Amino acid sequence: INRILQRPQNINTYYLEAVGRGNLREVKALFAIVRTDRRMDLKRNCVDQNERSALRIAVENKDPDMCELLIKNKVHVGDCLFHAIRIGYVPVVELILENRRSVNAIIQDDNPYFSSGTTPMLLAACMDNYEIIKLLFKSGHRELQPANNPLCYFNDVQQGDRFHTAFESATKVQLGCSGKSSPSYITLLYTDPMQYCIEHIKDLRRQANVEYEYADFYKQLELQTEDFLCSLLDQIRSSEELADLFEYRYKSCDQKDCTSICLPSNNYRKAICKMQLLDDANSNRLVKFVTHHYSQLALAYMRYRNTPFLNDSSYARNSMMRCFLGILFPVLSVLYLISPYTKCGSLIVSPVVSFDCHMASDVAFVFIIVSNLITKDVDRHYLGMLFKNKQNRWCVISSEPTTLEWIALLWILGKWVQEFEELYHRGWKSYFRDHWNHTDLVALLLMSVAIIFRGLDYNKRATYEALYTVNATVPVPSPFEPRMIADGLFAWAYVFVFLRLLSLTRANRNLGPLQVTLSRMMGDVMRFLLIFFLVMIAFALGLSELYWVYGTPKGKIILCSFGSNQTVDQTCKKSTILFSGLWPSLKTLFWALFGHVDLTQLSLSNQHGFTEAIGRLLLAIYHAIAIIVILNMLIAMMSRSYQITSENEEREWKFHRTEMWIRYIRKEAIRPSPMNLIPHPHMVLKKLRLFIQIIL
Prior knowledge:
The protein is mainly α and 696 residues long. The chain has 4 domains: 2-189, Ankyrin repeat-containing domain (Serine Threonine Protein Phosphatase 5, Tetratricopeptide repeat); 190-305; 351-507 and 667-695, no CATH class; 524-663, no CATH class. The chain has 34 helices and 4 strands. The protein has helices at residues 2-5, 11-21, 24-36, 54-60, 64-72, 80-87, 90-99, 120-127, 130-138, 167-180, 183-189, 193-210, 215-233, 239-246, 266-272, 276-283, 287-290, 293-304, 315-327, 329-338, 351-375, 378-381, 403-426, 428-433, 435-459, 461-471, 482-500, 512-547, 553-560, 570-574, 582-592, 609-647, 649-665, 681-695, and strands at residues 386-388, 394-396, 561-562, 567-568. The chain has a two-stranded antiparallel ribbon with strand order 1-2. A hairpin with a 5-residue loop joins strand 1 (386-388) and strand 2. The longest helix is centred in the last third of the chain and has 39 residues, at 609-647. It is flat, with a radius of gyration of 39 Å. This is Transient receptor ion channel domain-containing protein.
C-alpha cells in the first residue's frame, strides 16, 4: 500500500477505486495507515466525478461487507439509504438502519435522483417493496412525511393546495399519491386496508379534478388501488371470513339465530345487516369490487338467507310464488304489525319479499291511476263543468274527487313517508346520489302541488255557481285556472310515475342492461341538448333580427303593400311571421328538425327579396348543422353508450342491481305504501311510555 501511495496518484482516487473494485483488504489497509500516519490526507467522504461517495459506490455494487466496513469507519451516509431503497437491496438497507435509524432522513436540497421532500418510507412505498417497508417500520419510520418538519415540502393530498400549478408541487403530490397507493404500504400500516383504499380512491378522484392535467396518472393509481381491493377479497377462504368482512352475521336482542326479526329500529338495522363496506364501494362506483364474485356471493346470501325456498331451481315456481307474495303485501304488512317475531310476520322483512311487495305496490298505484283515467266521466268528474238547468240557466256540477282519487291520495302520502324513511336511514348524500330518488321526488312534488290546486279549485265552486246562476252567462275561463294548472301538473306527474317502473327492471338479468343503457343515453341527450341549444339560439337570434320588423303591425303594412297606390293585401296582413321574435324563432327552429315548417311562409314580396334570400340561407345552414352534424353526433354518442354497456353487460347489471338490493337488505323501508301510514304498535307504546315518563 505504501509503495502504491508513493506514485503520483491521489489517495482519495485510489480509495474510491478500491471501493469500486470491492477490494476489502486494501480499504482496511488504507484506514489503518491513515490512523497511524496523520500525514495521509484521506477524505472518507470524498466523491468521484459523478458525485458518488464511497458508500454510495458500495451500495450500487451491492457489496454489504464493504458497506459495513465504511459505516463502521463513520462514513457519512448522506442519501445512500435512498439509493439502497431505489435499487431494492434489502441487506444494505438493513445494515444502514441497524447503524443509523435515520428516522428524520429527508431529501432537502436539489438532488438529481430524488425529489425534494422525499422520505425513505415514501420512496419505499413508491417502489412497493414490502421487505424494505417492513424494515423501515421496525426502525421507527411510520409516515410518508416526517411530522413537524419545517423542511418538508410535501403536502398531504387531503390537506394540500387545491391549485398545484408549479411543476415541483405537482410532482411532490404525485409522489405522495403513488406511495399511498402502494399495496405493501397499505398492508403494513393500516388495520382496515379496505376502508382506507375506499377513502384513498375518493382522494385520488378529488385530486384528479384539481389537477386535470394529470388525470390519467391518478386514474392509473385508482385502478391499482381497486385491483388491490379485489386481491384482498381473493384471500377469503371461508363463509365466516366473508361474513365478518361484510358484517352481516350478527346476533342481537334475545334471538338465537340470525333469521329472527327484532323491532324495526335504526340500531337494529345497522346491527343485523350493515353491508357498509359494499354500500360504500357501490356509492363510490368501485365496479370491480362490487361485481367481484365474493361480493356478489355475500349479496346473494343476504337476499335469500331468510327465504331459501324462493331460490330453488324451478324458475316458474319461484315466479308464481313471488307474484303471490307481492299481491299479499297488505296482509303481510298487517301480520308484521301484529306479530313481527313470527315466521309469517317476519316474512315481509326478507329482501326478496320486500322488493316484491314494493313492486306490487307501485304497480297497484299505476293501475289506480289508469283506472281513474278510464272511468272518468266529463259530466260527473270534472269540477266546474257547466250545464243548463230547467230554467235554461248555466249551473256548475258540484262533483267531488272520485273514490280512486282518494285512494291514490293515500298512496301519495305513503310514498312521502317512504322517501323520508329512506332519507333518514341512508343520509342525504347517499339518498340524493341515487338518480331514481330524483324521479320519485319530482313525481311526488308535482302530484302534491296538483292536489293543492285541485283543492283551491274545489273551494271556488260556490263562487262559480253563484256567478253562473245569477248572471246566466258563461264566463271566459282564465288560462291559469287552478283546475287547468292541476291537470297540467298531473300530466307531468304521470310521466314520472310510469318512468319509475323502469327502476324495477334492474333486478332482471335481461332487462337490467337495457335499463342501464337507457340511463347512459339520457345523460348523452342532456349533454347534446346543451350544445344544441347554443346552436339553436345562435340562429334564432339571427333570424329574429332579420324578420322581427315584419311581425309588428306597421311592418306587416310595409310588407303587404303593393302597387303605386300602396294597396294593402288583407290576406298577407293576416299571415303569420315565423321569426317575428326570439321565442317564436326558437319554437320554429325546434319544430323544423321534424319537418314542421312551411317554407312558403318565408316568402316575402319582391321589394324584400334580399331579406328572403338571407333568411332561406340561414335556415339551410341551420338544417345542415343541426341535422347532418349535431343529430348524427347524438346518434354516435348513444351508440358509444350502448357499446360500453354491451361490452360489460354482466358487470354493469350486477353493479346497478347491487345498489337496489342493498336498500332492501338494510331494511330502509319495510312496509310499502300505503301500509306504512299505519303506525307500528310497538313504537306507539314506546313513545307513549316516554311521554308518560316525561309528564310524571
